[in-house]
Automatic annotation (TrEMBL), chains A, B:
Coiled coil: none annotated. Residues 117-333 form the Smf/DprA SLOG domain. Residues 1-20 are annotated as: Disordered. Belongs to the DprA/Smf family. This is DNA processing protein. It comes from Neomicrococcus lactis.
């Protein structure tokens, strides 16, 4: 770790105030309410976080008729018709997880781990998450060595997602794109899985710069940030924590379940200006992130692959359905409307640079004359006239032009192509 | 060669009449006028083929003012403003190639080779070529063992084109697509080059069936049909000649020049309902065929490949520019509007078939419960309630559903995931 950076962090930590009532309520609610629980979101919207937490933790207090009424109306406005019975059941469900001491402990623990909790009332809260409307999270747990002041703006973030069981092709494209974006000061957002997620982070971390204005990469996790899942990515997660940040909706100690993985995907899509699927099978969790990006009106791109590769069928399907085809980091920046005046041109494709060919500039007649010129033997003007189908004047003037361009040579009145 | 087929061909040949004045004129004009020469096309349109040929071969006859006037007006209507001087020069140019004996000989020679000349006034003429307007050919030389009665309709033909220096990926996709189309009675049209052209033909020939209603494949050549270019494809060309047909605008003895290759591409695009580029570098002749297909309003598809492969950059560019993404022969048939009620579905993709998963049918609550069930140890209903965040009633009813579906098992009041 950079020594001056860790000093900064120490100052930041020691200057940190005791958790506010809002933070405690948010921590408690994130323990009791599953990510994406719209009924819980309705309660928070109607009561505010502090009152919502107080209501749930007063386990004997029945839910009032007026609260039920307000929640019902809000849920209906969101298109979620829920009977009163479901709302009562939801309260019982949340109450099974009540544990105020554990909530306070989770806040202290997160601070010890070099992290904290961010709530929507704080200036650093990523405002773009409100596009999720009734699916927006009400807090984010974070863990990182840099103070969260370095959080980038939405239009400087892109999600790179894909399969865990990626091919070497997918992995190498992920590294390439992650690195290309970070070099252009675009923050990469992904999950914490093996394969594409890991390689996208690794690519972004190659552009690591302690003086950088923002994080090179952000990992959005499905479970608590106290332990890493999968454990095999521990070194990578430590590196992301040092140079970037880890975030999660769920408090420390939470297991990453299938449900939480699916809900996590909506955060990845909502945080960023665009989502790019690098490699995905016909059925892949990455496609759920793509779906969220579409619903949110974010950019959606996909990297093509061989039609013979099962590992690319999800991406090819997205492309058939209208996702933008992504070849390199520049294509992604165009998708994000972050072009810096960049317009794709033949010569910008470094791996396929080709010199303009002399022949490209020839007129039709001169091209026919070039075709008629022998490579080895020598040809007379009369013969060239017949082979090229040009009159004598056309042959003579054409030969003069080709000679000036170094494409034709003459000897004793006969002609051939220049070597 | 199929014996009954060669008998048919013998009958066809012996029944063939002497060449008509139109055939002789067309043969002569195809010798003198380069493919795609709009001035030549204007002369043919204004005078008719027989008179146009007679005018050019009367080498001393000057071009009349009224003929010049008519040609000028026609060229102007086509958007080609050409000065009178250019028209006079064109006449001189054509006349350099006059040789009536060679013209008659080329017709006899082609007949000996098992072929002939087709002109637009014949019922078998492929009418779709008239979409080329002032670039339409005025004759087609052909060579094949089946009588040209088997010429398919335009909407049953598709062009498969691509690079000569194809990768093993491109080659294998070309074989796959060629074979898939021929099996669906769609005729493949391509050039005669190594790489994608050859592999597309080879794929189509695997579906060879002497009783088939149409040719499996058609090769459109840039030079005369008396010799094959490249010579390394001689065996393939012989096989196409036996089962399909070879065609060219140019008479026997004509060398395949760069110009003629470029012009040949417009025929490939115009003959078919759609053009599919299978593998092409950033600069590839196949892209000129794609361009013609677009100009003609034909379907245009491209097969994606790895973004890291230089051999796929031309295809990826076409896809960026809106070409339809092609994964298999079914995608091509959809592009041709030849779907036979086919609609792509997950399960139609044989190489990525996946069984529906039991989990897919679960409600959100049951999914959370599944996530909470241990794989090894056993969990009580109370514990499941806390871990899953569900009330006791929800856990009990959920466990009952999971048990019925064989997803959960119970022992002494505790539960785990079914193995």
């Amino acid at each position: 770790m950079n020594p001056s950076l860790s000093t900064n962090v120490q100052e930041h930590l020691s200057a940190r105030p005791q958790p506010s009532a809002t933070s405690i309520a948010a921590a408690g609610l994130s323990r009791m309410i599953e990510p994406g629980d719209v009924i819980g979101k309705a309660l928070v919207e109607v009561s505010g976080m502090v009152d919502a937490y107080a209501f749930i933790t007063h386990s004997t207090q029945p839910i009032s008729g007026s609260l039920l009424q307000s929640m019902s109306e809000l849920l209906e406005a969101w298109g979620h018709r829920k009977g009163i019975k479901l709302l009562r059941e939801a309260t019982e469900r949340w109450r099974t997880r009540t544990n105020h001491e554990a909530v306070l402990q989770s806040l202290r623990y997160m601070e010890q781990l070099g992290g904290g909790l961010l709530t929507p009332d704080e200036p650093l809260w990523p405002q773009q998450l409100s596009d999720l409307e009734f699916n927006a999270p009400f807090c984010l747990w974070w863990r990182g060595s840099k103070p969260p002041l370095l959080w980038p703006s939405a239009e400087r973030m892109v999600s790179l997602v894909g399969s865990r069981d990626a091919t070497s092709y997918g992995n190498s494209v992920a590294v390439e794109l992650g690195s290309g974006l970070a070099q252009a000061d675009v923050t990469v957002v992904s999950g914490g899985a093996y394969g594409i997620d890991a390689m996208a982070h690794r690519g972004a971390l190659t552009a690591e710069d302690p003086e950088a204005a923002t994080f090179p990469t952000i990992a959005v996790m499905a479970g608590g940030l106290d332990r890493y899942y999968p454990a095999g990515n521990t070194d990578l997660m430590d590196e992301i924590r040092t140079c970037g940040v880890l975030i999660s909706e769920t408090p420390p100690g939470t297991a990453p379940t299938r449900w939480r993985f699916l809900q996590r995907n909506r955060l990845i899509a909502a945080l960023t200006a665009a989502t790019v699927v690098i490699e995905a099978r016909w059925r892949s969790g990455a496609l759920s992130t793509a779906h969220h990006a579409l619903l949110l009106g974010r950019g959606l791109g996909a990297v093509p692959g061989p039609v013979t590769s099962a590992s690319s069928q999800g991406c090819l399907k997205l492309l058939k359905d209208g996702a933008e085809l992504i070849r390199d980091a520049q294509d992604i920046r165009l998708l994000m409307n972050d072009s810096d005046g960049y317009a794709p041109q033949e010569t910008d494709q470094s791996f396929m640079k080709s010199e303009p060919r002399a022949h490209d500039q020839l007129s039709v007649n001169d091209l026919m004359l070039m075709d008629a010129l022998p490579i080895r033997g020598w040809s007379t003007v009369d013969h060239l006239s017949e082979v090229a189908g040009l009159n004598i004047g056309g042959v003579l003037s054409g030969l003069a032009r080709l000679q000036i361009q170094g494409l034709a040579v003459t000897r004793e009145g006969s002609w051939q192509k220049a070597k």
